[in-house]
Each structure stands twice: as structure tokens, then as C-alpha cells.
Amino acid sequence: MLWRLNLLLARVLHYGRFRLLLSTLILLLLLGILLTYRWRTDAQLCFMETPAAQQQQPVNMPKILDDVLVTEPLPIPGRSIFFHETSCHRSKRKRPRPGQKSTEMQYNMLQLTARQACAIESAALHNPNFQIFVLFAGPTYHYFGNSSNGSGSGSSQRYQPLIDAILSYRNVQLRQLNLWRFASGTPVENWLNDGPLFRSSFLSSHISDFLRYLTLYRYGGLHLDMDVVMLRSIEDLPPNYTGAESNIHLAAGVMNLAPNGFGHEIAVSCVQDFIHNFNGKDVSNNGAGVITRVTQKLCGTKDVSVMLDNRKRCLGFKVFERNAFYAVPWKRWRHFFEPQLLEQTLAHTKDSIVVNLWNKHSKQQVIKVGSSTAYGKYAEQHCPRSYAAAGEYF
């Protein structure tokens, strides 16, 4: 009888431990789901309008940038250059309310790095007949005056000198956009509302990919990544082009499409490919992957050398050779920042239209203003006002 009681007790204890383990696992799973949902919700808030964004703000509070869809000057189809800033720079500010001492509001504040300012300025400098639009994803605030492009009196913000530098060009416009309004009436509207974009593991990067193709669908024109330096004008280049990064891959950092006709057909193919092949766990599938797949289908080949040698295969869509935009491959990104490689790098890029600094790998790298590096020489010549405004380091 005693052994039966001991066996029963052992079974009860074992069952109790099993239930405890199972309950713990379920609790951890629910906690993980809750934290993931909370992160996605918080991430979405960066790109959604709050009541504060819809109201007239007090004089001493930040103002929201104007919306690109409704503010003059509007993008000129096929004659505009677009940059997209999809980072989330949230900060808290005290906002007084009637009957309350104060309340804290979170604002996405306008910020630009020296590298971003250089990219924008170089495009404005070399293309005076094009409008340069810097599009901030989500409600973005500033402390400027009331002019439509955001220019106005200075402030104590850290990045103000750089912003003043780019706004000294009359063809630079700073705008914000609402993702859902921007997608309204386009082939990606329903897909965006379904929510797969916000389940991405690389949200900022994939929103940038989403916007580059959607913007080219809306307006045509040129998309540029914010880690480039433009070395010469693109105003006389053909209306539809991209650039090769290797013998098998094209890149999405420099793309131009006409706003109608053949160019718009390519844009339609790009947005359709984006939503059909979207992969939130692959950082490059939705950017370079899209234009690579679309061009391979258009040209009937996966061999980039064939695209270059026989342009008729691509029906007029031009694929520039690697030296045009990506003369220095990503594995050699340090060449831009090493003084001993100055002459070699300048010689290697002497025929380039744009240089790409591969920000994913080089974003922590800075140079001292006045140092003898390839990037320093590019900046001094092609974004002189940003270079001068950056301070000691660039």
C-alpha cells in the first residue's frame, strides 16, 4: 500500500511540475507576443499623425513640416530628385494645456547628419533646374519660421547649421508624408493596410524601399539614397535607368524613371514585385532585389554584362556600368576614408556620376574636416556649404 501512495505522490508532483513548466512557457509566449505587438505599435506611431500634428501649435512649440501631397511647389513629374528619410527621431517636449501645468508630447524632430546633408546639397548644386525633395516619413517637426520649405530663423538644435546649409539652395524642399495617404489610390494601398510592412525585421530600411518605388510610381524622376555624393549633373541623362553593382545584381540607390509611358510601366512592375515578393526578414530583397528582378524580366537575361552590351534587349531601359554609381564596391568602403588611398580612389571614380559611401558599413566612420581623404575631397567640392557647417568632423 505504501509504495502505491509513493507512486501516486510522485505522479502528482511530476504532473504539477509539468503544469508549472507548461504555464511558464505559455506565459513567456504571451509576453513575447505582447512585447512584439507593443514594439510594432510604437514603431507605427513614428509614421502616424497624432492629434498634435493636426492642430495649430503654440508659437514656442515645434511646427510640423508641410505635406508633399498638398504643398506648393509640388514635385514636377520627371523633373524632381527624391531623398527619403525613414528614421525615427522622437523626443519629448512640454506642451501646456488649458487647466494643466504641462504635458509631455513626443515629436519626430527634424534631423540630418552631415552625410545626408552632403548628399542633398550635391544633388541641388549640380542640378539647379530640378527640384530636390527630402521626404520625411511621418509627421516631422522643426523650429523654423513659417516658410513652406522650412526655412526661417535659427535655433539651438544640434543639426541646425546643416539644415541651414541645404536650405540655402532655392531648389531644396523639406516635406513630410503620411504613408497611408501617400499610398492611397495606388496598387500598394490595400497591401499597406493589411500590415505586412510593420512586421518587418528591418522596418526603417523596408519603409525606405517601399517609398522609393511608390514615389517613382507617383511622380517619376530620380531616387537617390542619402549616403551618396553626386559628382556631376544628371539633367541630360536618359529618362529611364538604374546602375549595376556587380555582374549579377543591380542596385536601388540611384534609379530614374519617366513619369509616364515606358517609365511608368516599369514603376508599376516595381511596386507589384515589391508587394508580391516582400520578405520582412531579408534586408535587400525589397530594395535592390526588386529592380534586379524587374530588369531581368524586362531584358530577358540575368547576366548584367548582356544588359550592358546589348541595350536593345532592355527596350530602352539603360543599365549603367558599375563605374557610374558604384565604382567602389561595398567591400572596399574604407577606401573613401583612408588618406593613403586618396589618389587611387579619386582616379577610380574620375568618370563616376555618383559615388555611394555604403552607409550600412561606414555609418560610424567620420573624417576630420580638412583631412586628405577621398570623401573629404568630394565633400569639399560637391557639398561645400554642408562641409563648412559640419564643424570639426564630417
TrEMBL record:
Looking up Pfam families in the UniProt record yields:
Gb3_synth, Gly_transf_sug
Highest taxon listed in the record's lineage: Eukaryota
For membrane topology, the record states: Single-pass type II membrane protein
Q: Which UniProt keywords apply?
A: Glycosyltransferase, Golgi apparatus, Membrane, Transferase, Transmembrane, Transmembrane helix
Q: Where does it reside? A: Golgi apparatus membrane
Provide the transmembrane region boundaries. Answer: 20-39
Q: Name one GO biological process term.
A: glycosphingolipid biosynthetic process
**Which residues are the signal sequence here?**
none
Q: Does the keyword Membrane apply?
A: yes
Identify the residues that the record assigns to the Alpha 1,4-glycosyltransferase domain, covering every copy: 261-390
Instruction: Give GO terms: molecular function aspect only.
Output: alpha-1,4-N-acetylgalactosaminyltransferase activity
Recorded GO cellular component terms are: Golgi membrane
PANTHER family for the chain: ALPHA1,4-GALACTOSYLTRANSFERASE 1-RELATED, LACTOSYLCERAMIDE 4-ALPHA-GALACTOSYLTRANSFERASE ALPHA- 1,4-GALACTOSYLTRANSFERASE
Q: Which family does it belong to?
A: Belongs to the glycosyltransferase 32 family.
Q: What is this protein called?
A: Lactosylceramide 4-alpha-galactosyltransferase-like
Native species: Drosophila albomicans
What gene name is given for the protein in this entry?
A: LOC117564213
